[in-house]
Structures are given as C-alpha cells and as structure tokens.
Amino acid sequence: MFDLRCDLIFALVERWCPETCTFHFPCGECTITLEDVALQLGLPIDNSAVTSLGGVLMLDGSLDVLASII
Fold it and tell me: What is the rounded end-to-end Cα distance, in angstroms, of the chain?
C-alpha cells in the first residue's frame, strides 16, 4: 500500500521539535495539518465535523440521531 522509506522517516524525526510541534528545516519551520494528512491519504473531509461536548466526542447532528433512536 505505502512505500515505507525509513531513511526519510528518520530524517523527519531528527528535525521534529516537540516544544513547538513543528519540523525545523533550513528554510524555516513547517507543521502538518489535518488537511495535509487527509490529502496525502485520500481521506474525505467534506462530512460532519467531530466536536467535543462535555468530554464526549459527538458528530454534528448526532444528538438528533440519538433522540430518534431513543
């Protein structure tokens, strides 16, 4: 499925800065967004958003679905 390049992964690990959650490159800092991951993996991001309500993850409109089930 994926061509795993350990040398590239190790190079990225060496440049990761956990304090700022960014990669440090000679040209500047770089971060990875959820959109970047979705584009690389081909994941759809046009559906309902996942939000948190009282520490419980809820999908938009999920309260209506839950009410209709109960």
Answer: 41
Q: Are 14 and 21 in contact (CB under 8 A)?
A: no
Cβ pair 22, 29 in contact under 8 A: yes
Query: In this predicted model, what pLDDT tens digit does every residue of 20-68 receive, in sequence order?
Result: 889 999 999 999 888 888 888 887 777 666 555 555 555 556 556 556 6
CA angle 28, 29, 35 (to 5 degrees): 130
pTM over 0.70: no
48: left (phi over 0), alpha (psi -120 to 50) or beta: beta
Match 């089930």 to its residue by tokens: 69
For the chain, the structural domain boundaries read 6-69
